[in-house]
Amino acid sequence: MADPALSKDELESSPTTTLHSDNAPATAPAPSAGSANKRGFQLNLHDALSPDQTNEDMYDVPDNRFAFSPGQLAKLFNPKSLDAFYALGGLAGLEKGLRTDRNAGLSTDETTLDGNVAFEDVAPKGTPKYGDRGNVMPTAKTAPQPALHHPDGQFVDRKRVFRDNRLPEKKAKSLWELAWITYNDKVLILLTAAAVVSLALGLYQTFGIEHDGASVEWIEGVAIMVAIFIVVAVGTLNDWQMQRQFNTLNKKAGDRTVKVIRSGKSVEVSVFDIMVGDVMHLFAGDLVPVDGIFINGHGVKCDESSATGESDLLKKVPADEVFAALDNIAKGGTPPGGIEKLDPFIISGAKVNEGTGTFLVTAVGVNSSYGRIMMSMHTDQEDTPLQKKLNRLADGIAWFGGGSALLLFVILLIKFLAQLPSNNGTPDEKGQAFLRIFITAVTVVVVAVPEGLPLAVTLALAFATTRMMKDNNLVRVLKACETMGNATTVCSDKTGTLTQNMMTVLAATLGKSLSFGGTDAPLEEDVEKAANPVEIDVPNVPVGEFTKSLSNTTKQLLIQSNAVNSTAFEGDVDGEKTFIGSKTEVALLTLCRDHLGAGSVQEERANANVVQVIPFDSAVKYMATVVKLPSGKFRAYAKGASEILLSKCIRVIAEPAAEELTTTEITEGDRAVLSQTITSYAGQTLRTIGSSYRDFDVWPPPELAGHDDVTAAVFDKVHSDMTLVAIYGIKDPLRPSVIDAIKDCRRAGVTVRMVTGDNILTGRAIARECGIYKPEEGGIAMEGPVFRRKSEEELKELVPKLQVLARSSPEDKRILVRTLKELGETVAVTGDGTNDAPALKMADIGFAMGIAGTEVAKEAASIILMDDNFASIVKGISWGRAVNDAVRKFLQFQLTVNVTAVALTFISSIASDKEESVLNAVQLLWVNLIMDTFAALALATDPPGPSILDRMPDKKSANLITVRMGKMIIGQAIVQLAITLVLNFAGPQLLGYDMSREIEATHLKTLIFNTFVWLQIFNMINNRRLDNKLNFFEGITRNWFFIGIALIMVGGQVLIIYVGDAAFRIKPLYGWEWGMSIGLGAISLPAGAVIRLFPDAWAAAMVPHVKLNFWPFNLKSKKKARRAQKEADDVEAGKLEKGLGAGAGAGAGAGTSAASEHSDDSFEPSQPLRTLTSIRGKRATTHIRRGFREYMHDQKVKVKVKGRGMGAGGKVDVAAPGVGGKLPETAGV
């Protein structure tokens, strides 16, 4: 066992050479604290800084200008180590060793550092530098990480030694890797094999046999290989582009700003620029990005469940207090009670749930304990629901194509074999003919397999997420992009989302004798108040006269109640001095600075002796700060919801102009006037904030005895008998774009609900102003406390009409989201606070505020609003619909080509004397390239037009292929097949081609091929619309990508016709043939118009509702049935075992009858047994095998039950269900 902790004097006199690997000194007397330490905590410095095998390289830092290496600092965490904290000298040692200042932070002028600090200068004397290794530098078994070289700029040495707060980028797949992945497709490999065989035969025919003229039989094999190469190349480039776009998005998603102290000033820096040695602010709602040691603060509690698995909130204790306790133990003192709760460690990945404070950063980036996981968003994107749905559809189509190809191959093979006796060709020609049949069948599979479906949705999502970023929507979870298009309701915060979050104090009422502003007419009269109006008799003066009327004592009271009782602070933003923090607090601090002559916030707080900070709690709607007065008394300032604070007040400031602070009781008349003031402010869309105070003789007061940590809920016990200071009216103007955005939502069938913490009057007035609240349409407004008391049935009846939820808590928001989802709505919700996280997670789409949102809210959200603007949500809806539309457009186009190409190949191959398709393998591969890649690129990049919001959102259960799409697919397929088959079979007669001449026969085939491709090009334009409107070209000029892809397809086709004669087995066409090809292809457009005019209801009525209960369409249902059967059997086995076990244990000699009796209880009458087990005999059930594991389980049941029966002295005749034997008598009932 390790030796008990040594006292500091013993450590000083004990040379480090006496330390052995077993952590015990060779000759060290037992310290006086030994007996105390035996009762619990032991301080052990001999192993505190020992390197682990995994981090030895972190100890080796050349030219280290600091006292510690990253390896030594890492010993503070994983697990948290008080030993390491003491061994490093506590906060004072870390401060000196890291060359920083706990008050001023790092210097903004720091570049390189002169000299160095030795470990021995900061650690307790005698502390071994490397733990059980003594002072011997550990030898790394792995090569140390390469140092970061920053020859110039800030913090050069600091970055070199401790690195910056960036993680190594996930290695992207190279082009070659992506190409290999793209090529590893079974069909492409099969086609490659066919192409190799074709090329070998072609080369043999070309060079191994004498010919009269030129022979190019090898061209077809080469052409197929080239086509495969193009397909792979295009797919690879697309994947590479997707990879780049998502990497860019991931980088943006990981970046955020944090607040640190540098050169004595609080500044905002990027999370990537945090340095070891920085002093960083902690606020409720923060997600800690780095490791560190807590300096000081008020009521800081962290949720470390995501980092350590610890589910309880952990209160943080200032580092100096912890070190003092440890130093006392080291000197032989008794460990204090609850020493395990001394926790100064701020661990990366933790969430700050309560309180404010500062901490010293000790590890960043790759050296932090949890930063790698929490900061990195370089995760592979999962398939979205739409992608999964499309993958299943693609599999179904592939099965259909494979079945068609197999059937075609069998038919052509039979026909080929039947014609062999009369075939006078050479063996080579016969082999070539057979190979042609095989290639045709394989090509049908290639055409039928819709590789472009996953590509289309990936392209649409990538294009949409990139463009959404420009519209201030940062998509963190990819599936939210497509889900957003089907949102049916948006629950929006008010402040900063619907309003500008640029708050200004426009009105204030001080006590009952002075006020300024707030005299505008309200937007709406409150019905209840209008019946008995109360006249507001508080004198109202301009703001300049208001401030002149205040004594210095009153001014100081107002300043302290706002500056000290606040979490906002001064800082620089874009070179300008301003306040940083809650916009409400910023507005109040600005009033104090501009009109009350307040000094700097830091100065005001330094002059006040703050003894307790009670952070804002959304449950009680206020925050408080307790300060010690020069008289020795304590004063608690409270600030929050005005009506709540007014209800807690019994006194009010009497005479603001008097130098001595006087108060008077609030009469019923005074209370009515003050309540009417709040109502009046709220009716003018002003946000009302109340301020109050109460003096205490001692703190904490007797009522709070036993509470180590005073939260708002605890403070509520003494939140009474308060004195009202003032009621402020703060204006937060609506965003200019909000009214139009809400009109767009109504047009799109999306209901907007306002969820606000303001009182119902303010919320209702602002909701009416921006068009959310429509009482004339049956809309209702309600307060949170009333809402949360409703029953489930009342909520479901109420929520569809609810438009404003005021004075709401995060729990109210969660209840609202849950109820809406139960009603079948697709819910989007906005949130900015830590407590909003449950609602954000529960919603289908969670929007976190990028500016005002806490890091916890951002982590819970799926989309971050970079500008906190409601109009950006509407843009998100448009883009979500554009994604769904893009996929449907492509699906409609691809299924048309699939049906047409497979049917055309099938029919023409069977009808041909040579078993040849009218479209050969190389031509079909070109068509496949058009429909799989080019069309995906063109149709997936259509931006949303204004008309995209002119329809209702789709339901969650909506089919991927709608009736309107099916109508277009079938209609266009019929038109295309009619044109190509007429050309193929009647072309010679109609157009005068002499099929006995090879050149004219080739011309006809070229004409058919050209016409088929032009049909697809025009059909792609036709598929730009999914509705029944006839303008195919709407918005086409806004999508230059579509125009460019269409031109590439046209250019490629013209090039093929003129120079691809050998590879594609075609001939250049004449002018009239070009005209006919394009003219026939253009029929797709008028045909599309006619199909659109055909009523959807008629089309739906014509479709027979047939269930495809045959292979391969029933594979999924059969699997589901087998799974259900297995679950039912398992349930029965469990019930039988329970029943038989009860019967066997009832008593000796119970026998079968006992088992039967007890089985009445074990078999539930509400779930009768399947009649199968009762009707079928023992022989039949014995031979039913559900699988080896189930069989063995059943045998074990038999043995166990038999053993119980024999042990009880009785005989039990038992067989497990599904194996054999008789069931208890009740089984047949």
From TrEMBL:
Residues 917-1094 form the Cation-transporting P-type ATPase C-terminal domain. It catalyses: Ca(2+)(in) + ATP + H2O = Ca(2+)(out) + ADP + phosphate + H(+). Residues 24-36 have a biased composition (Low complexity). One of its GO terms (cellular component) is vacuolar membrane. Residues 156-198 form the Cation-transporting P-type ATPase N-terminal domain. GO terms for biological process: intracellular calcium ion homeostasis. Residues 1-56, 1142-1177 are annotated as: Disordered. Gene3D superfamilies: Calcium-transporting ATPase, cytoplasmic domain N (3.40.1110.10), Calcium-transporting ATPase, cytoplasmic transduction domain A (2.70.150.10), Calcium-transporting ATPase, transmembrane domain (1.20.1110.10), HAD superfamily/HAD-like (3.40.50.1000). It is found in: Membrane; Vacuole membrane. Residues 1-11 have a biased composition (Basic and acidic residues). The keyword RNA-binding does not apply. Belongs to the cation transport ATPase (P-type) (TC 3.A.3) family. This is Calcium-transporting ATPase. The lineage of its organism: Eukaryota, Fungi, Dikarya, Ascomycota, Pezizomycotina.
